[in-house]
Amino acid sequence: MPVLHFPRDDRQADELPWGSVKASLLILAMLAGPAAYAAEEADAPPAPATPSQAGGLVMFDYQAIKIKGYPSIDLMGFHVLNKFDDWLYVGVGGHAPLFKGAYGGFMAFDVSVHAEQKLFGNWSAAVGASLGGGGGGKDTEQSKIISGSGGFIKSYVGLGYRLNDMSVGVNYSKVRFTRSVIDGSQFGLFIQTPFSYSVAPYEHAGRRFLSSSEPSADSSLDHSDKDVVTFGLDNIIQINPKGSNKKTVNLADVQYKHFLADDYYVLFGGSVGYHGIAGYNQVYGGLGYQYAISSRSNISLQLAIGSGGYSPAKIDTGSGLLIFPKLSTEYRLNDQLGLAVSGGYLHAPHGSSRNMTLGAALVYRPSSGGRASAGDRSANELDYNGHRIHAFLQTEYKVKVGDKRQSELKLLTVQIDNTRRDDTYIPVQGSIAYGSYLGYPGYGELLAGIGLQSKYSADNPFQTFAQLLIGTNIHGLIFKPAVGANWGLSDRLAIYGQAGGTFSLDKLGLYPKQYKFSSTSLGLGLSYRFSLLQ
């Protein structure tokens, strides 16, 4: 995971739906191995060039959309946009409701293109477009009216003013969900801040870089601690529930933490249900404080604000706003891995939902990869770590739910690979459906796992792979094996293709037999490849 820097910035379809984030990252056992997959140290040649700086924007926006015949829905958006030119950005993001109506659990996700140009002084103008999808409503029938087929298109123009390290401004946007009552234009607000990171060609992956600058003598926070990812299983234990679903909701949770100082960090996370309510989802962000008990143990206290639920008729999160304080304690197994247990209180201020949470998690520090055992490495030596982002269209054939055949599923899929060494990588994949599924909008998948690959060579554009992913769709746990290949067009770009299948883990009895899911799939798209200095 790269260390992000936030510098002073002187610059400067009709149907593509997303499911309601009904997925999980159930790979704790698989992820217990990254330390064994650390890049080979001794034989890695020195990198032939120093890294360059790349960057992008983190953007938050807020808008309230009028819905004919229904209360307005307000959406808070969060986008991470990578800079491809002085004025062009491409990235991904999502939207969730906060204060208006009874839309708890509504989620929308997209791929966005953003263009921005400085006008004069501190003023700038922007124009952008997003394609994606989402779903939600007070109940399942209303979700068909509110969300239509699930796909949405958003376009906007904006005017911003730079204030030190951030910009604030106003957007005028048009949002339309296909075959739904959401189709409006409105003004909204935005805040954005730039970030930067050290990047190098993909062929440098696994090589070592000797920094010309020594680490700060008074820095007590090790580089490996600045970025932390936790993969956990959490449980929402409902207190006097008013909705029709009164069960404990079992979740898969992923959270990213970036330390601003030795003890304080910002966090972003998301959770998806795999049992109790398989469609439950939530996203959140906030601040935390970590106190070291010893060299191997610590306690963390964090406060997050977010949005989530399923439908207020089943679990009453009202407008969607969530407040989520949580206390956790971790025991570090080594420099890279730890185990944590947590307890919290999940509160929906605009609904009746009150919940205790109990969970356990694997704590993973991606940047430490084998650093403790590298006795031949000086303190200012770092490694290049390879990353790939694949965007591809995926068609699910021979779809079968229970004993009944269903129509083909058309999915837009994004997968992110983190290479651990020449022949292994860790993939995380999310998919959105083009249209309705079983008559409703909102089919989605989110999975993670492990992959094997042939060694990359700049002289050979062909690279093969095989991977196994585990996660969830709207019915429960699934696994997804696949094989495929990349055909390099350049060091950064490649054609990506894969073939595989999707199958329910029905042996665990986590959902009714009539929802047993199976399909075969083909996918074709593009890969963007690079190395990060870590």
Describe this structure in words.
There is one protein chain. The strands form two sheets. This protein has an 18-stranded antiparallel β-sheet that branches. It is globular. The chain folds into three domains: 30-199, Porin (Beta Barrel); 211-371, Porin (Beta Barrel), CATH 2.40.160.20; 381-533, Porin. It is mainly β and 534 residues long. Residues 1-44, 214-224 and 369-377 have low confidence and may be disordered. It has one helix spanning 140-147; strands at residues 52-67, 70-83, 88-97, 107-120, 123-135, 151-163, 166-177, 183-200, 208-210, 227-238, 249-259, 264-275, 281-292, 297-309, 321-332, 337-347, 354-364, 381-401, 404-405, 409-421, 424-433, 444-453, 462-472, 477-488, 493-504, 517-533. It starts with 51 loop residues before the first strand and ends with a strand.
Quickly list its features.
Porin, disordered N terminus, 18-stranded antiparallel sheet, mainly beta, 1 helix
Please outline the helices and strands.
Blueprint: E1 52-67, E2 70-83, E3 88-97, E4 107-120, E5 123-135, H1 140-147, E6 151-163, E7 166-177, E8 183-200, E9 208-210, E10 227-238, E11 249-259, E12 264-275, E13 281-292, E14 297-309, E15 321-332, E16 337-347, E17 354-364, E18 381-401, E19 404-405, E20 409-421, E21 424-433, E22 444-453, E23 462-472, E24 477-488, E25 493-504, E26 517-533
Antiparallel strand pairs: 1-2, 1-8, 2-3, 3-4, 4-5, 5-6, 6-7, 7-8, 8-26, 9-18, 10-11, 10-17, 11-12, 12-13, 13-14, 14-15, 15-16, 16-17, 18-19, 18-20, 18-26, 20-21, 21-22, 22-23, 23-24, 24-25, 25-26
